[in-house]
Amino acid sequence: MSFQLGSSLLDACVLAVLAREDAYGYSLTQQVREIMDISESTLYPVLRRLQKKEYLTTYDQPYQGRNRRYYRITESGMEKHKELTQEWVEYKQKIDSVLLGGKNDE
């Protein structure tokens, strides 16, 4: 996709993935990559920011002799996810209206 995607949309995508299940960094990157082009080096600052806002928590689990850091959405993260999802629906309807000339049937 050639459209620039803002940090709010990236936050929404990360929170949406984590709303379904906990994930470790690489797995999370792969899931978000299905939606948009993103690298791990881009994702980790996003995760730290969401964690600082208390939308995410972390825990470690051993995996093949090493610890793997998992991310889990918090209750306030779920609320933010719902808020961003609603904002996306409204934004998408407006964009569809402009791009499709009022034809937003899908």
- The unreliable regions are none
At CATH's second level, what is the architecture? Answer: Orthogonal Bundle
Mean pLDDT: 90
The third-level CATH topology is Arc Repressor Mutant, subunit A
Coarse structural class: alpha+beta
3D architecture notes:
With 106 residues, the chain is of the alpha+beta class. The protein has one domain (7-99): Orthogonal Bundle (Arc Repressor Mutant, subunit A). The protein has 4 helices and 3 strands, in the order H-E-H-H-E-E-H. It has a 3-stranded antiparallel sheet. A hairpin with a 2-residue loop joins strand 2 and strand 3. The mean pLDDT is 90. It comes from Ornithinibacillus hominis. Residues 14-82 form the Transcription regulator PadR N-terminal domain. This is PadR family transcriptional regulator.
Keywords:
106 residues; alpha+beta; Arc Repressor Mutant, subunit A; 4 helices; 3 strands
How would you summarize this macromolecular structure in one to three sentences?
The chain is of the alpha+beta class and 106 residues long.
List the helices and strands and how they pair.
Blueprint: H1 7-20, E1 23-24, H2 25-33, H3 40-52, E2 56-63, E3 66-73, H4 75-99
Antiparallel strand pairs: 1-3, 2-3
